[in-house]
Records
---
Amino acid sequence: MKLLVLNGPNLNLLGDREPGIYGHESLADIEAACREAATALGVDVEFAQSNHEGALVDALHAARKDCAGVVLNAGAYTHSSIALRDAISATGLPVVELHLSNTHARERFRHHSMIAAVSVGVIAGFGAAGYPLALQALVTHLGGSGKP
Ligand code: CA2
């Protein structure tokens, strides 16, 4: 079973700036943690990032062919993108919405998610540790034990 971990705009800058909000880990560190978690869970993982809304839509469409589910940190597109919401609905893939920060403890415009209603669940506020948690949640949702 393969899972996609998909990251949206500006997350390529992680570790560089705003560590007080997003932590000190780089996206490469997060990818390494996801690969370690996936091995422990007995699943394969594909890891991707794009700053472009259409490329994220394309990645969701492509995932339909060979992935069982998606961990999606859509970044700021979370709060604005009807296209991403429609792509999640169209693919029918189970998606766990993920955020490093607790978006509900931040500006009001971050409180609304366009994709939460079409996701199986949301993890927010646990920093980089949220990624392995989201993979575990997805495997459990898909009926796996969460153990190899
Ligand atoms: O908390 C999250 O994971 C977010 O998805 C991050 C997005 C933000 O727009 C969402 O509301 C919540 C922003 C990612 C920006 O990443 C940066 C990384 C380093 C320096 C500055 C921004």
---
Amino acid sequence: MSDAATRPFGGLEAAFQAALAQATTAQALEAVRIKFLGRKSEVAAALKGLGALPADQRAEVGKRANQLKTAFEARLAEQQAALATAPARAALDVTLPGTALAQGRLHPVTRTMDAILACFVPLGFEIIEGPEAEYEYYNFDRLNIPRDHPSREHFDTFFLEAPSPQPAKGRLLLRSHTSPVQIRVMERRKPPLRILVPGKVFRPDALDPSHSFMFHQVEGLVVDDRTSFADLKGVLEQFLRALFGEDTQARFRPHFFPFTEPSAEVDIACRVCRGTGCSTCGQKGWLEIMGCGMVHPNVLKGVGYDWQRVQGFAFGMGVERIAMLRHGVKDIRLFFENDVRFLEQF
Ligand code: DAH
């Protein structure tokens, strides 16, 4: 190529190359295209002005301008493709603050369950679980709740439609309490026993602020040859103080459960009004916390124990109710709606 032909574009290629190297975004690339190939660019002006050139230069300048135009277009296209496949590199700003990761946490019912279990483990209790789909035999019969006994009505129950794999053990149901696990353990083990049974239970209750058709219980059972009602009181009072604080007052109120005799309900002094009466305790000054009693001789006989030589106590409590009292939660349904605004508070 002659000097005359290259001179009009002297340094243009180097300037384009330098500008292209700087262009790391789509906008910058477009600015380079406008500058070097746009209507007001040197190349465009040269092509437009070809007619005014002397004939001997016209062909050379025209050819050179077209070469540059094609080469610039090709390099711009390459650079555009390179940017498109590596967008992150261009977009990464290491000085921006990071995005905080939301931290998960244990559900308040799980935490209360753990706190309850932790009170008993140092006393030598062993944690055992049992099935949620249960036979009538364990949920009722062996717990001294005969088929025609009116107390069955207190334990409204979800019966399962699946046929019972062991018809001799009655129909299948969703257990209405954790007490059947007492029977399952006593059937296969000899005293001494000291067990704790956490788990889900089910009752066909309509949902309201204090009822849910599924909730959690913790059951306890101690059997040996000398455990007395005094031991029951001592263990449960110590448990309630460990869970609710050293100054917690408890009272044992006579009650009826088919599987214990004598039976009691345990109340603690209302934590809100300290016993004087308020809306949390229904003006009673006391909050019912759990059921308990000495294991009924019929229950001991039913599992083949010598009821004249062994004795023991049992207790059962609702975990959601205790979680509500610990945290001042007024509606049990909040535990199951899984709204993070609620769960984040624990
Ligand atoms: N199973 C009872 C219920 O669900 C709670 C209970 C009361 C369990 C007394 C016990 C007990 O082991 O001794 O209402």
---
Amino acid sequence: MSKIREGTVIDHIPAGRALVVLKILGITGNEGFRVAVVMNVDSARMKKKDIVKLEGYYPRIEDLMKISLVAPEATINIIKDYNVVEKRKVEVPKVIEGVLRCPNPTCISRKPGEPISSRFLLVSGSPLRLKCHYCGTEIGENDVIEQLVGGGRS
Ligand code: CTP
Ligand code: ZN
């Protein structure tokens, strides 16, 4: 897999999750910049992993937070002139506000007209479990992926 000149390499994505990461970033492939995806490559640390390389693209902070939920070990490498100029791990936040919807239809965070956005607290990172701050309903990794990609679980 060739090196990129400028852009972002998202490394240490769980094997098979690269397409979920692209979906979260809203990247379809029609944007015109070069996208490289490798799936199920050998990794010392993770056994198998996926990698996404995005030429000339730099993700937004909000998107990195979402990526942390589906790829808690991911490393974000910022590339300038072929060099890694910044490397950082995503961080799974302790509190996730406004991004996910509580599945409980009677939860106050879902009342129409209430100015209350959803709030989930991190119960466990691996496997991912989040708990609604308002009603206590718990959601897991599959629910989160489903919500973030909007439907299918690919
Ligand atoms: N990379 C790239 N293009 C570049 C520089 C790096 O595609 N111009 C990719 C590398 O192939 C690797 C990732 O960015 O997948 C991180 O690069 P580097 O820090 O050099 O690799 P490692 O030291 O193996 O990373 P880590 O320690 O995070 O595992
Ligand atoms: Zn709730």
